[in-house]
Write a structure and sequence with these properties.
CATH architecture: Sandwich
Order of helices and strands: EHEEEEEEEE
Number of helices: 1
Helix content: under 10%
Distance between the termini: 27 Å
């Protein structure tokens, strides 16, 4: 019975940096998890390097999906990186952590995806994920939070 899973992403396996010249939203990694019960939640988190580069007033959003859809119960699980002034000078890679719970996910196989895209109201920016270190996605089946 699977109640916890860790997916590894090796350094340099992400090439989203180059794809952002063309694509606005990009699946970085997905992991298939077997959920055992219908009345539980999935607790997910990402830890790894994220950055945006060479732009002013720019923003990128990293987020989780469950079978292709963002979490709606209770809320999306996401994080952003925003930079006010960075044109020609800022290239700061930082380890970041994005975490949350998602309810109302059926029992059985669940495809958990980790994506990068544009922030609402902002144009495209050069994003990079997973530079020179192993990144991880953790998935855990847990009891639903108390109301």
């Amino acid at each position: 019975m699977e109640i916890f899973k860790e997916c590894y992403v090796s350094p340099w396996s992400f090439i989203d940096h180059f794809y952002f010249l063309i694509f606005f939203f990009h699946l970085l990694k997905d992991c298939v998890f077997t959920k055992n019960f219908s009345d539980t939640s999935l607790h997910v988190y990402w830890t790894g390097s994220l950055r945006i580069y060479n732009c002013d007033s720019c923003c990128k959003r990293w987020y989780f999906t469950f079978n292709g859809a963002e979490c709606s119960g209770p809320l999306p699980i996401d994080g952003i990186v925003y930079m006010w002034k960075g044109s020609g000078r800022k290239d700061l890679h930082r380890v970041r952590h994005i975490e949350g719970h998602c309810n109302n996910i059926h029992r059985g196989k669940v495809r958990v995806g980790f994506w990068v895209g544009n922030c609402a109201g902002y144009g495209n920016a050069d994003a990079h994920t997973g530079w020179k270190s192993v990144s991880r996605i953790f998935i855990e089946e847990v009891p639903k939070a108390q109301a």
